[in-house]
User: Which sequence fits this backbone?
């Protein structure tokens, strides 16, 4: 009964308000679900990939630049206790798919015991398949990929390996028994074919060791280590995954933090809406109580409503989040792929636990938000609930308390922003951002109060001033709700501004860096996947062709390989220092001319390191670093530190000749061409491409094309962040809308009275619209200030701590001003709906005497 | 005597469920300048409806409501606003002060809405209703009698030709009710405004020049 009277009835009579509330909850939850499931999918694909493709291996033998094949023989003594399996794992591009695949080279005879892949019976007996694999450049294709590319046993499959076009024959189609998504993009070939394709003569990527049952793993590992040279690592596959995913961890952390932030915005909105709807029914609740309803009955009604809103909003949010996640995945995927050499991410699947968490969060926040004002409403004696709210100004002590709290939070934020990273993660800095948002919420009430004081004062004035003053007075009277709304707007604007500032600073820095550092006229690289991610390397033949055509002195092939620094994986890069010393490249932290740096480095056999490396290992100009490389140790002085926004795990660059003494020539990852002045880059590109003929699948980009592409990749990577920015603005507008409708409902009688004592419709509408604009403006100004502060923390602290990148702080002033203006205008426009409702009210009905 | 308000054959119907109810049926009367007329009758007889029509916050279904020379039944919204701003002052049973404005601000409201400012006039009225010391208080801080005195000052501040009072003492105890009524009559005499008073309590009608008794939406007697 009570439920019907106090909940269903109002919902039916004012469906719009209920809908706004539900939509608000849904928006918050959707943002969270989208961010989390997209990042989960991306990270899960990596995890599953590592875990599943490693099969049942318990131990792995790895070495920088690969494990020499003959070490397999050295492990023969343990073969009674374990299976010893050679593996090559590389990446190739399937042009018909437009995407990268993992190529797994295995010893088919032993491997069947490690990886359980069910072969399709159509393709013949396993023996027939094995025969095809060993003799005819055969490849096993997962069923999902086979159906996508319409492949059957015996068909040809073209792949681009080290930019060479290679044709393989489908020997069979397999169905993975577990983790189908991990195997979605994996081609299986014989290890000998893999060696041939990837130029790994005499080397393999790892040896997997699978203990037979009952064999002690630790003992086995120790035994294997004794048999092998010290430069080789023997460890569990998980450890390899963990070490290589430092970047993914940072990415995941930041995505989760973003999700948390969107949750925060959602929570603020939900709280605003529900608190408003409860406060609004103060009178009704008071009447019900004076008529004999128990507190528990009323609490039940209010909480039932909150529950309904939470469940509906949560369900909508989870569903909407899935849609958002699909869009988000594109952006997250290329980030992850860039980080871990083109691992394709799995499709979005909503994990049931995330759906449940989303729903629970929606419900909990809704209940909590309703509970606070409810306690207040049923805690006061009914009589007081019936008399009108007393609209005094904030008393001095509470004003001082709010100010002190806000200042305290600001100080806390400043201190936290200076704190060091926690396990490489910018936890303190993100807490600092939270403290800043807290300060914003806390100060909303005193700011509105001050505003009201300002405007209060002598009466009279022009006709336009009166609605404004009335609006301010009304806001001051309903300050508790109004300050929530202003706070919600502020938080939303702050987030939009912070994100905008971060992205813009980052983008401007990267554009600058690209302009400065990318000086070559033509870049050649293997064909990229549709994600824009580079797949594999260039065949050394490409370098030789270019050298023949243009001369050695203008060719700068850039190689990368793995090395370890203090036990951590890093990238070792190599370029033609002699070439760059003439033409210049990247920009250096100490501002030196890059030509000098490379010339000196070449003379002194020194290295240059990128900024993430310097930050990660606290190495500076002039220090000496020691890297573990295949032949032993590489000791080099650091000539200078260069800005770099791509190799987050740290990169050391040495001269190419130096590099080729340590690593076999697997081909460079890219090749830069510095043409003599006056030469036409486009012509040079055509010359090179036609010389390479159809044998190689390469892309050649001119200077401007590459720089444009850098920016394009950047924008795609940050697409998700921008979407979040839009959500934040939407949240701000929704918050204002809900609160205004509520304030309007509460002040119906006042507005009717205004009409009765001579107010025109326009004046009444102006009062309501002015409230909207004031809420928006207050929130926007506060949000702008706090958002800039958070942006500063993101740019200067969070990015440095999680990626090792120094960015310049470059707020996009005009865009920020536009955002603030947009939000204010949006709030004003949102206020037109309640203003219209106010105009349409019938004064005589709202003024009818209750007695 | 100059006529400031005239109702001519006014009928007002309300829809209650599926049927139409006559709240007023063929009501006609006049109100002269500076005259005080009391509308009396039991609850539901149509007193508030009459006052709402004169205040221009509601429209009749038939007939004319002429206030200060304008037929409000036919007037557009701007004319209604002008009538309320210059011609009519209202006092309600439940006071209906703006809770977030101070006493002085409440009194000045009709002027402010018209874009006027007259602090001297506001002060004068506050003094005359005995609320100078309360000028910066909010309504919630006042007693019922004080709130209604504020409403009286507000109803007179713009020198209306007609003051409408709907059960102005209905929310007050009899002593303060009588005091407010006395004050109201005194002030409107000084100002030269007419007063249309609606009350179910015939004893309050003794101050009136004329008493119109309503029953079921029609005039039963004029005394
Ligand atoms: N907005 C309305 N809707 C429906 N009926 C109404 C409305 N206002 C008044 N009435 C009806 O009109 C009649 C007269 O009401 P009213 O003028 O308020 O009486 P009084 O003020 O004399 O007590 C009553 O029967 C009342 O129920
Ligand atoms: Mg009445």
Assistant:
């Amino acid at each position: 009964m009570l439920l019907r009277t106090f909940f269903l009835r109002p919902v039916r009579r004012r469906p719009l308000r209920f809908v706004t509330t539900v939509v608000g909850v849904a928006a918050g939850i959707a943002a969270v679900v989208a961010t989390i499931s997209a990042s989960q999918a991306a990270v899960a694909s990596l995890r599953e990939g590592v875990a599943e493709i490693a099969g049942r291996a318990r131990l792995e033998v790895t070495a920088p630049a690969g494990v020499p094949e003959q070490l397999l023989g050295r492990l023969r003594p343990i073969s009674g206790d374990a299976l010893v399996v050679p593996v090559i794992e590389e990446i190739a591009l399937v042009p018909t798919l437009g995407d990268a695949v993992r190529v797994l080279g295995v010893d088919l005879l032993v491997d069947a015991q490690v990886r359980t892949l069910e072969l399709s019976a159509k393709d013949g007996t396993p023996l027939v398949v094995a025969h095809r694999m060993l003799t005819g450049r055969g490849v096993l294709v997962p069923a999902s990929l086979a159906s996508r590319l319409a492949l059957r046993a015996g068909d040809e499959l073209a792949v681009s390996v080290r930019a060479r076009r290679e044709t393989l024959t489908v020997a069979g189609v397999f169905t993975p028994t577990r983790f189908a998504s991990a195997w979605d993009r994996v081609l299986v070939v014989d290890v000998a074919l893999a060696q041939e394709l990837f130029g790994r003569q005499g080397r393999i990527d790892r040896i997997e060791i699978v203990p037979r049952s009952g064999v002690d793993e630790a003992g086995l590992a120790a035994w294997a280590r004794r048999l092998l040279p010290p430069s080789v690592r023997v460890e569990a596959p998980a450890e390899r995954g963990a070490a290589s995913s430092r970047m993914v961890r940072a990415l995941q952390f930041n995505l989760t933090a973003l999700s948390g932030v969107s949750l925060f915005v959602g929570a603020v909105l939900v709280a605003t809406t529900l608190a408003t709807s409860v406060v609004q029914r103060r009178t009704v609740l008071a009447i019900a109580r004076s008529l004999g309803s128990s507190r528990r009955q009323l609490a039940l009604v209010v909480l039932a409503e909150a529950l309904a809103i939470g469940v509906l909003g949560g369900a909508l949010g989870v569903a909407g989040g899935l849609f958002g996640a699909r869009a988000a995945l594109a952006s997250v995927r290329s980030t992850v792929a860039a980080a871990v050499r083109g691992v394709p991410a799995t499709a979005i699947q909503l994990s049931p636990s995330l759906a449940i968490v989303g729903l629970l969060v929606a419900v909990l926040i809704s209940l909590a938000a309703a509970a606070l004002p409810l306690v207040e409403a049923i805690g006061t004696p009914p009589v007081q609930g019936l008399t009108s709210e007393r609209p005094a100004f904030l008393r001095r002590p509470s004003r001082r308390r709010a100010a002190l709290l806000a200042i305290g939070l600001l100080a806390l934020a400043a201190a936290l922003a200076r704190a060091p990273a926690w396990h490489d993660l910018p936890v303190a800095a993100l807490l600092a951002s939270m403290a800043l948002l807290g300060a914003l919420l806390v100060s909303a009430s005193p700011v509105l109060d001050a505003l009201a004081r300002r405007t209060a004062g002598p009466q009279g004035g022009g006709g336009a001033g009166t609605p404004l003053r009335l609006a301010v007075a009304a806001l001051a009277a309903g300050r508790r709700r109004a300050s929530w709304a202003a706070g919600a707007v502020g938080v939303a604007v702050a987030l939009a501004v912070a994100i905008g500032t971060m992205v813009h600073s980052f983008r401007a820095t990267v554009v600058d860096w690209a302009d400065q550092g990318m000086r070559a006229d033509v870049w050649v690289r293997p064909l990229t996947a549709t994600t824009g991610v580079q797949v594999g390397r260039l065949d050394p033949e490409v370098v030789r062709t270019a050298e023949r055509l243009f001369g050695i002195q203008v060719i700068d092939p850039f190689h990368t390989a793995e090395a370890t620094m203090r036990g951590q994986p890093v990238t070792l890069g190599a370029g033609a220092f002699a070439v760059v010393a003439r033409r210049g490249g990247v920009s250096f932290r100490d501002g030196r001319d890059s030509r000098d740096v490379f010339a000196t480095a070449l003379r002194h056999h020194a290295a240059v390191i990128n900024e993430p490396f310097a930050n990660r290992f606290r190495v500076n100009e002039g220090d000496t670093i020691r890297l573990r490389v295949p032949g032993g140790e590489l000791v080099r002085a650091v000539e200078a530190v260069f800005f770099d926004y791509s190799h987050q795990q740290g990169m050391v660059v040495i001269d190419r000749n130096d590099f080729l003494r340590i690593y076999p020539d697997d081909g460079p990852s890219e090749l830069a061409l510095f043409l003599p002045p006056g030469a036409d880059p486009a012509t040079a590109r055509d010359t090179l491409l036609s010389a390479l003929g159809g044998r190689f699948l390469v892309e050649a980009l001119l200077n401007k094309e590459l720089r444009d592409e850098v920016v394009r990749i950047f924008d795609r990577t940050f697409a998700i962040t921008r979407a979040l920015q839009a959500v934040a603005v939407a949240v701000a507008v929704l918050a204002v809308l809900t609160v205004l409708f509520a304030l309007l409902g509460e002040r119906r009688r006042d507005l009717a009275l205004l009409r009765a004592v001579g107010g025109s419709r326009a004046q009444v509408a102006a009062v309501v619209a002015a409230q909207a604009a004031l809420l928006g403006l207050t929130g926007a100004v506060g949000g702008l200030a706090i958002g800039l502060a958070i942006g500063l923390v993101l740019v200067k602290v969070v990015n440095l701590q999680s990626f090792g990148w120094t960015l310049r702080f470059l707020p996009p002033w005009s865009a920020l001003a536009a955002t603030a203006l947009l939000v204010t205008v949006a709030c004003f426009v949102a206020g037109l709906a309640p203003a219209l409702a106010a105009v349409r009210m019938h004064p005589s009905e709202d003024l009818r005497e209750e007695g | 005597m100059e006529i400031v308000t005239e109702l001519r054959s006014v009928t007002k119907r309300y829809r209650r469920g599926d049927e139409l109810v006559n709240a007023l049926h063929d009501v006609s009367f006049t109100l002269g300048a500076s005259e005080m007329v009391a509308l009396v009758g039991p609850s539901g007889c149509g007193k508030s409806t009459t006052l709402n029509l004169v205040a221009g916050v509601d429209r009749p279904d038939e007939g004319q409501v002429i206030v200060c020379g304008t037929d409000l039944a036919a007037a557009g919204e701007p004319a209604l606003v002008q009538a309320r701003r210059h011609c009519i002052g209202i006092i309600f049973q439940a006071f209906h002060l703006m809770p977030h404005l101070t006493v002085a601000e409440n009194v000045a409201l009709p002027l402010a809405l018209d874009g006027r400012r007259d602090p001297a006039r506001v002060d004068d009225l506050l003094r005359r209703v005995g609320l100078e010391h309360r000028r910066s208080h909010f309504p919630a801080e006042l007693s019922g009698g004080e709130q209604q005195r504020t409403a009286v000052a507000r109803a007179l501040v713009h020198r209306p030709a007609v003051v409408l009072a709907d059960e102005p003492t209905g929310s007050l105890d009899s002593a303060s009710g009588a005091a407010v009524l006395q004050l109201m009559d005194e002030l409107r005499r000084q100002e030269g405004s007419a007063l249309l008073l609606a009350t179910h309590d015939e004893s309050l009608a003794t101050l009136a020049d004329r008493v119109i008794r309503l029953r079921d939406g029609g005039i039963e007697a004029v005394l």
Remarks:
- Chain B touches chain A through 44 residues (CB under 8 Å).
- Residues A 849; B 47-48, 166 surround magnesium ion (ligand 2) (CB under 6 Å).
